[in-house]
Design a protein that fits this description.
Immunoglobulin-like; eight-stranded parallel β-barrel; four-stranded antiparallel beta sheet; 31% helix; binds ligand G3I; endo-1,4-beta-xylanase activity; signal; hydrolase
């Protein structure tokens, strides 16, 4: 049931044009980004997104290039969606859905029932009125987003940090059955979406909080309370370090018959230590069949809620960190993607020989993911028999179409004949090697006829 919905979503948002649609079948040489490498492993690699940062070109470019799942960092929380009781404001959050459709990305919904970030009117409620308000919020929001979300964090952070019992909150005081009531309400609102319980400090198998959540999920499964997944926020730092039994924790939960997802990953630190921990987390997820996705809680260190701990994969300037390289490698991806023939033929010549041998040439191929009113185009530039020091790809947009956003290239023109030139880091391409850039547009997608000028 859920599988067929996921495929239908892709078909509905990805009307195929003359180019090949590769959303569901990443090719081997596409695994040069976190999202494509994870997809090759049957997983997603996502990030928290802050809508007000989308106008930041560096942020948007990394987002579009690297990730195939998004979570609203704050915009789908209760205070954002229902600021006054029964008055819903979806405008900002809906932008995330549009963005995700353009990227061909999944969306994690975060979060429906939580003691924190409640609007003022809810904070002052209690008893049956609060329980009804919680259920109404779940029903209204899930109905609005029906068919558009992959997994919902139905309940967030409901357990006490130390004793393995429930956290005290106004929701908890409505009765111990509030969590199962939330999940039953959620299932009734949208039978197809995955319903998750999400929490932090549940990574170490020996911790009381981990056991408390485990016992709740076990009980829900035994009694038929609907639950499909458990989210492990995995905010790691010196007070809550990555535990050596993390894989055991993920596997034990998965064995209860739920998917497990790493939902808010960040690891404070730097250099090799941080890089190794990121790689360990990825390897642990890949080792557990039902660990179907990883989300990092922000893009650049400067975007993090814990910015001073530099816990993310890109530095404040948007450069990939050592942790990025180790994460990509653990996912089976690679930062360089020369074709096998090029690497074998260039086994003996010196670097200077390969620079000067032959005339530089390149080709550009376009893959399009289109929907009514818009499209995302991914363009692969392939070097000929000599290494490139720069390239410009050109193509023509149909009348009425326009480029709205470009990543990993600099665009010249937005309509008609447009061209895209390499940026600083991807101008150099080995003989036979490839690099990719992309752009988003409104209107109908371009034809697959391209030009490529090599330098
Ligand atoms: O946007 C306003 C700004 O206009 C105002 O001037 C400023 C002054 O306080 O606040 C800004 O809003 C802040 C918002 O982040 C955006 O930066 C809120 O105060 C602040 O409370 C909010 O913090 C968020 C936090 O959840 C709230 O609980 C963090 O961004 C967000 O990363 C964090 O995410 C949580 C997950 O939802 C659940 N798990 C833990 C995780 C980290 O705390």
């Amino acid at each position: 049931m859920r599988r067929s919905r996921a495929i239908l979503t892709v078909l509905a948002t990805g009307a195929l044009t003359a180019g090949a649609l590769t959303v569901l079948s990443p090719s081997a040489d596409a695994a040069s980004t976190l999202g494509s490498a994870a997809a090759a492993q049957g997983r997603y690699f996502g990030t928290a997104v802050s809508i007000n940062k989308l106008s930041d070109a560096t942020y948007s470019s990394i987002l579009n290039r690297e990730f195939n799942s998004v979570t609203a960092e704050n915009e789908m929380k209760i205070d954002a969606l229902e600021p006054q009781q029964n008055q819903f404001n979806y405008t900002t959050a809906d932008r995330l859905i549009t963005l995700a459709n353009g990227m061909g990305a999944k969306v994690r919904g975060h979060t429906l029932a939580w003691h924190s970030q409640q609007p003022g009117w809810m904070q002052s409620m209690s008893g049956t009125a609060l329980r009804s308000a919680m259920k109404n919020h779940i029903t209204q929001v899930m109905t609005h987003y029906k068919g558009k979300i992959d997994s919902w964090d139905v309940v967030n952070e409901a357990f006490d940090d130390s004793n393995g019992g429930r956290r005290d909150s106004n929701l908890q005081r409505t009765g111990n059955d509030w969590i199962e009531d939330a999940f039953k309400t959620a299932r009734a609102a949208d039978p197809a979406v995955k319903l998750c319980y999400n929490d932090y400090n549940t990574d170490n198998w020996t911790w009381a909080k981990t056991q408390g959540v485990y016992n709740m999920v076990k009980d829900f499964k035994a009694r038929g309370v609907p639950i499909d997944c458990v989210g492990f926020q995995s905010h790691f730092n010196s007070g809550s370090p990555y535990p050596s039994n993390y894989r055991t924790t993920l596997q034990n939960f998965a064995d209860l018959g739920v998917d497990v997802q790493i939902t808010e990953l960040d690891i404070e630190g730097s250099g090799t230590t941080q890089a190794n921990t990121y790689a360990n987390v990825v390897r642990d997820c890949l080792a557990v069949t039902r660990c179907n996705g990883i989300t990092v809680w922000g893009i650049r260190d400067s975007d993090s809620w814990r910015a001073s701990g530099t816990p993310l994969l890109f530095d404040a300037n948007g450069n990939p960190k050592q942790a990025y390289t180790s994460t990509l490698a653990a996912l089976g991806g690679s930062t360089s993607s020369p074709s096998p023939s090029a690497s074998s033929s260039s086994a003996s010549p010196s670097p200077s020989a390969s620079q000067s041998s032959g005339t530089r040439s390149c080709t550009a191929t376009v893959t399009v993911n289109a929907w009514t009113g818009g499209f995302v185009a991914t363009v692969k530039v392939t070097a000929g028999g000599a290494a490139l020091t720069g390239w410009t790809a050109g193509l023509t947009l149909p009348t009425g179409s326009a480029v709205t956003n470009t990543w990993s290239a600099t665009a010249a023109g937005t309509s008609g004949a447009v061209s895209f030139t390499n940026v600083g880091y991807n101008g150099t391409v080995a003989a036979g090697g490839t690099t990719e850039f992309g752009f988003q547009g409104t209107g109908n997608p371009p034809s697959t006829t391209t030009t490529c000028t090599a330098r």
